[in-house]
């Protein structure tokens, strides 16, 4: 699955990759994002234009009648069941997104405990995770809340020794079909091995609350 990831890019990098035309945002690098945090999400806004929007990581569908705390674990959606599960199927049909990421973490069991690894793009670029989003009316605050989920699939050969699942990393050339709905589950495959690189990192990643610590992604020996 994908339970921790990073967003440590600049506004200029997002503009160069995705042609954003909205007013610039003061983005701060984040190295330990956990579920229910507010994250950056890219959604279509008319034509081929994309907009960066803050959302809760953990999807709450529009029809949810209980509170946010009562939502089941929805920070990941499995590619194999995303079109069938009630929590995700409506969003898959009408409100897709991508979550721009600098990398993500997975844990490998070892005799001394689980060892975290950081997995990022081979060439240091932004990874476009396939995602879904929705807008829900919070009965407690009487406000609207945007939320999202990251779609995961079987791990590729390179990352499988660490974990059997990985985020779906979309091919940049297929984003238009993803947003338009003309492409579907055939895109939800493991990324080629040469797209990614990985290395072991400090177990300090296990404790949230240190999002601004760039040393979390440094390799350990």
How would you describe the overall organization of this protein?
The chain has 221 residues and is mainly beta. It has a single domain, classed as hypothetical protein yedk fold, CATH 3.90.1680. Helix content is 10%, strand content 33%. The protein has 3 helices and 12 strands. It has helices spanning 11-18, 86-94, 175-180; strands at residues 5-7, 30-33, 38-44, 50-57, 76-78, 96-101, 103-108, 115-121, 127-137, 144-154, 165-167, 196-200. The strands form 2 sheets. Strands 3, 4, 5, 6, 9, 10 and 11 form a 7-stranded mixed β-sheet that branches. A hairpin with a 6-residue loop joins β9 (127-137) and β10 (144-154). The longest helix is centred in the middle third of the chain and has 9 residues, at 86-94. The protein starts with a strand and ends in a 21-residue tail after the last strand. The mean pLDDT is 95.
Helix content: 10-25%
In the predicted model, the low-confidence regions spanning at least 5 consecutive residues are none
Return the string of H and E elements. Answer: EHEEEEHEEEEEEHE
Estimated share of beta-strand residues? 25-35%
According to CATH, the fold-level topology is hypothetical protein yedk fold
Identify the CATH class: Alpha Beta
CATH-level-4 superfamily name: SOS response associated peptidase-like
């Amino acid at each position: 699955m994908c339970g921790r990831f990073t967003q440590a890019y600049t506004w200029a990098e997002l503009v160069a990759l995705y042609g954003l035309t909205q007013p610039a945002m003061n983005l701060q690098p984040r190295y330990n994002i956990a579920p229910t945090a507010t994250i950056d999400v890219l959604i279509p806004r008319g034509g081929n234009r994309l907009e960066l929007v803050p959302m809760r990581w953990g999807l709450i569908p529009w029809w949810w009648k209980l509170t946010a705390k009562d939502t089941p674990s929805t920070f990941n959606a499995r590619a194999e069941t995303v079109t069938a599960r009630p929590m995700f199927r409506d969003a898959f049909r009408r409100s897709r997104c991508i979550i721009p990421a600098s990398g993500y973490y997975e844990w490998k069991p070892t005799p001394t405990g689980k060892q975290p690894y950081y997995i990022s793009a081979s060439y240091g670029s932004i990874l476009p995770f396939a995602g879904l989003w929705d807008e829900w009316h919070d009965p407690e605050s009487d406000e609207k809340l945007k939320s999202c989920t990251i779609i995961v699939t079987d791990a590729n050969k390179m990352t499988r020794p660490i974990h059997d699942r990985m985020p779906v990393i979309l091919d940049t050339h297929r984003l238009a079909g993803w947003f338009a709905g003309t492409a579907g589950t055939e895109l939800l495959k493991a990324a080629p091995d040469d797209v990614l690189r990985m290395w072991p990192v400090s177990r300090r990643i296990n404790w949230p609350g240190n999002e601004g610590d760039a040393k979390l992604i440094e390799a350990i020996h």
